[in-house]
Structure formats: structure tokens, C-alpha cells
Amino acid sequence: MKVFTIIKTSLLVAVLSTGSYACNASLLGKKPSAKKYSTREASAKAQKKYTEVWDFKDGLAAVSQDTRWGFIDKTTELAIPMIYDEVTTFSEDLACVRKGRRWGVVNTEGKQIVLYIYDKIFPFDQGLAIVVRNGKWGMINKKGIEVVPLEYDEIFPFRSGLATVIKDTKFGAINDRGEVIIPLIYDEIGSFCEGVCPVLIGEKYGYMNTEGRVVIPTFYDKALGFKDGQARVKKRGKWGIISRDGDRIIPFEYDEIGEFNNGIAYARKNDRYGYIDQQNKVVIRFNYEQALDYKKNTCIVRIGGKWGALNNRGRIKVDFKYDKLGAFNEDGLAYAKRDNAYGYVNEALREVIPFDYEHAYDFKNGLGIVKKGGKWGFINNENRTIIPFKYEDVGFQFQYGLIGVKKGGKWGFINKEGKAKTKFTFDNEYIRPNFSNGFAVVRDKGRYGYVDYSGKLVIPCEYNNAMGYMGRLPANSEGFFIVEKDGKFGGVNIYNEVIIPFKYDMIRGYSEGLFVVKKDGKYGYINKYNELVIDFQYDRAEAFEYGKAVVFTGNDEMIIDQTGKVQRKL
Q1: Residue 24 located in a structural domain
Q2: Is residue 19 part of a domain?
Q3: What are the pLDDT digits (tens) for 490-544?
Q4: Which domain holds residue 431?
């Protein structure tokens, strides 16, 4: 790669010296006088030109227009054309891109580095990328060479030089050459942090080092990763803190402990919240109904149904006057309610957008959804109206660049510019049309169907009910649209062809190749070919995760494997 870069640089110098820059610049699609903006300026300008704009990474930002994706540089001009169906941000000068059903990799010049042969590629990390093909996971290097064979059921990112892997429901760990360092014999292994990871042996958790040796015995009901030499663990129903040596630092006396920031964390005890330091000294007394993680020298707490803020000495920074408080977004904004009006506050609970609104939702993707004068509209973080206040109802957030809005008593979809992407013909009642994996359930004249993220109706509105899209993207590879017909549930593919017959009372979920289905009052599991894998015998059943599922029979709760064998009772 270094040789290639030198050659490219030399060619550019040669072009400049021959006075051919203008010609070559036009070939690249950029004007020679194109101005480069700061990251913030470029993002702001791009928001006006494109449907969706992601953060800049490695000098480029992913952008979309309708259903196509490309990348811009800080001139806000396209550096890589909009020819992709899906992309990731750049990582280590490479981005994963999808065309049709398959994923490949391009560099910052748009040159294809990895062929379009994978079902999924995750961003590069430490020179390697996790790839998936035909349900099996492996890893490639920056040249596209498979350095870890595609033989695992799942692979987690590298931490402390090792990646946790799953195969046949057992956990282990490999190095960056694909060598098995920790044998795949464990029921569960977490990600490595500070050289150790949580490990489940039998029914108890402990910690294992990168050599596969258990260094903290399996004493615990639950164990989280280490941070700053300490870890939160649960024993006999209570949480405490241990050191890397396994010594108890904070006794097992709390019902909940938050994450420590600058040496302070919230904790819950006897249904009341307070704050403690890492020596278990009480910093803020346990007087509060709710508390958030300590940030920016601020403890945000609720008492008497009102939210306010304290400093780390317990003195009031912001009066307890807020009736509601939303979730803080990546820019540190959250909606709040006081005196029957809504506005937005920052993480210090300071008001940054006036309380002029009748209702508000969380800020997402640079836009706040707010209600004024009985109508919904959209504002930016400077309180400027981006989409006018003219809608009777709205969805909760933009997904795939679209959001459901209601006008004239009917639902439709608009993009971030306020442009309608569908007709306003849908009559969804209590369920707002929101996207799940790129598809939204819609209803027209009392019948249900699906639209995709371009606003196209892909499954006609001809069904009694619809439960959502299940499976993987793209939909034509392994996708299932769950619908109801004549009182029974089944599944159709993207072409509206029946692939799961209409004979089930319920289809609840799909994971790891298995559907949770209900028939004649009992739950069981079928595969995507409608073959019965686990018999109908459970009163309730959950989807599989890492080869295990929780099921219920009478008063018994148990964990089963994918053969239906009981692993343990809960």
C-alpha cells in the first residue's frame, strides 16, 4: 500500500507540473477552486444537499440520495459516486459497500479492494474485517485475503489481541492469524477488556486471561467487563465491585450500579438512588427516585416526580422543575417538559432550545421532532424550522432517510427535506409506520402490506395483519415478511410468494435460522424451509441467541439448545 501511495503522489506531481491539473480535476468531477470546509461546516452544508449525511471518517462522509449511497469530501462534492445500495463509514482508509445482495470493500479513492462475494462485511479493525458468507463467519485482511476461515457461527471484534468466536453453541477465542488460543468449550465468553474477559462455566461467571486460564474463580451470577482495573459483578442478587485480583472493593449491597465516570457512579439501594465513589463512599445520599450516569460534574436525578441536577457535593445546580426528561443523544441534547411545555436541555441540564413546544421527541440525526399550534414539524439544534409544522402525527425518528407522517387523516412518508416519498393513503391506527430492517408495515383500507426505505410498496396491502420483517438483508437473500390471512400467520418473500404456509396461530421471531411459532396453543420452532425442528410443547418461547433459547412450561423456566435439549433450569 505504501508503494501504491508513492506512485499516485508522483503521478499527481507530474500532472501538476505539466499544467494539466484543470483537465484532471474535471475528470474527477471536482472544480480546481473547490473550497474545503471545516468538518462542522461541511456537515452542515451537506445536510442541505443530501437525504442523509454521516460523520466524516478518514476525510470522507457517507451520503445518500433516495436509495443510493456515495461519499463526499470536505468540499461537499462527491469523491466516490452514489452507486451503492448500502455502505459503512470509512475505517483504516477502507469502507464496506453493498451492491445488490453482496458486499465488497473500496478505498478512499473508490477503488475496489475486495470483490462483492460476501453477505456482510464489518468495518476494519486492527487491519482485519469480519466477513459473513452463507451463514459462516471469518476474517479478511486489507488485501481481501481470508486469514480466518469462514467456519464460525459468530465472531466478535478483537480485544487484547483476541477475538471471541462461537461454533456449535460453544465459545472460544482466536488470534489475528486464526489460531485457536482458547478452546471452544465454554458456555459463554465476553469480550476481553484489560487482558481478561467474563466466562460462564456451568451456571456461574468468573474471569479468564488471554492464555485461557481462569484467573478469578466462577463465583458470580453476572459479570461485566473491566474498566480502570475494576469490574461490576453480581452475587446472590446484589451488585458489588472487584479488582483485577478478584478482591472485593465495594461490598455486594446494591440493586444496581452505574458506570463510573471520573470516579463517581450512581447506585440503587432499597429502591432509592444515590451516588458513590470507587471507595464506596457515599457522594450523594440515597434520596432519589431515579438517577443518570455522572457526567460533566453533574448528577441528574429525579425526586417528587421532578428532574433536577446536583453537583458532586450534592448542591443543587438546576432546580427540580422538569416533569419529563428524554434520552441524551450523541450531541448531548435531550427533550424536557416543564410547565406543560417542551424544550431541549444539555447534559448539564441547561436549556438550549426554548420551551415553546406542546410536545417533543428525542433529537436524532440532527433533527428534533416537535409540536406547535397543534401540528408537528422538525427543527435543527439551533431551533430553526427545517420541515414546516403541518402534520397531525409523526413517527418517532427518521429511518433510512424517511419518517412516517400523518396529513389529512392519512399516513405517508417524507424525507429529511420534507419531500413526500409516498402518497398519503395509509390508514395505520395505533401503530405508526416505522421501519424495521428497511421495511415498514402499512395499512390501506383495513389491509396490511409493506413499503421499503425508498417508499415503494413491496408487499401489497392484502393481508389481515402484519407482524414485521424477519431475517437478513438484502430481502431477496433471506428475508421473510410475516403476515396473517384468514386467521392464520405465514410468511411471504420479497416477491409476495408464500414460503411459510398460513397455518400458525402466531410467528413471534426469527433468529439463527429458526422461527418461534405457535400452533394449537403451544410453541415450537421451525426452520426457514417450514421443517419442524423442536416440537410444539411450550407455553411460551423466545428466539434463539448464541444457540440457546428461554422456554416456559407451566411454572418451569429453562434454557434449551437448538435440538430442544434442556441445558439448565432457571
Answers
A1: yes
A2: yes
A3: 999 999 999 999 999 999 888 888 999 999 999 999 998 999 999 999 999 999 8
A4: 392-504
Place of cell 461454533: 167
Shared domain for 495 and 429, answered yes or no, is: yes
Residue 415 in domain: yes
DSSP 8-state assignment for residue 332: S
Kindly give the pairing relationship between strand 78-84 and strand 68-72: antiparallel
Q: How buried is 83 (Cβ within 10 angstroms: 0-12 exposed, 13-18 middle, 19+ buried)? A: exposed
Looking at the domain assignment, is residue 554 inside a domain? yes
What total number of domains does the chain contain?
Answer: 3
Q: Please tell me the total number of residues recorded for the chain in this structure.
A: 570
Asked if 526 and 500 sit in the same domain, the reply is no
Cα-Cα-Cα-Cα torsion 341, 347, 352, 357, nearest 10 degrees, comes to -20
Q: How far apart are CA 438 and CA 453, in angstroms?
A: 5
Backbone angles phi, psi at 49, to 5 degrees: -100, -30
Q: Are 106 and 113 in contact (CB under 8 A)?
A: yes
| CATH code: domain of residue 443 | 2.40.10.480
Q: Cα torsion at 337, 340, 341, 343 (round to 10°)?
A: 0
Amino acid sitting at position 226: F
User: Would you list the DSSP string of 354-373?
Assistant: EEEESEE---BTTBEEEEET
Residues 6+ apart with CB under 8 A from 371: 342, 357, 358, 359, 360, 377, 389
End-to-end Cα, the chain, rounded Å: 54
Per the listing, cell 424495521 goes with: 436
Q: Over the stretch 159-175, which tens digit does the pLDDT of each residue have? A: 888 999 999 888 999 99
The verdict on 538 and 562 lying in the same domain is: yes
Dump the DSSP string for 3-39: HHHHHHHHHHHHHHHTT-HHHHHHHTT--TTPPP--H
Give residue-wise pLDDT tens across range 291-333.
Answer: 999 988 899 999 999 999 999 999 999 999 999 998 888 778 9
Q: How far is CA 181 from the centre of its chain?
A: 30
Cα separations in angstroms, 132 against 42, 88, 120, 309, 515? 34, 15, 5, 46, 21
Kindly list the distances between the CA atom of residue 449 and the CA atoms of 442, 479, 480, 505, in Å, as whole numbers in the listed order. Answer: 5, 15, 13, 19
426 and 451 inside one domain: yes
Query: CA 403 to CA 451: how far, in whole Å?
Result: 12
Strand order in the sheet with 540-541: 540-541, 549-553, 556-560, 566-569
Asked if 398 contacts 364 with a C-beta cutoff of 8 angstroms, the reply is: yes
Helix locations, 261-363, DSSP H: none
Q: Could you tell me which residues are beta bridge partners of residue 412?
A: 405
Please tell me whether the overall predicted TM-score, pTM, comes out greater than 0.70 for this model: no
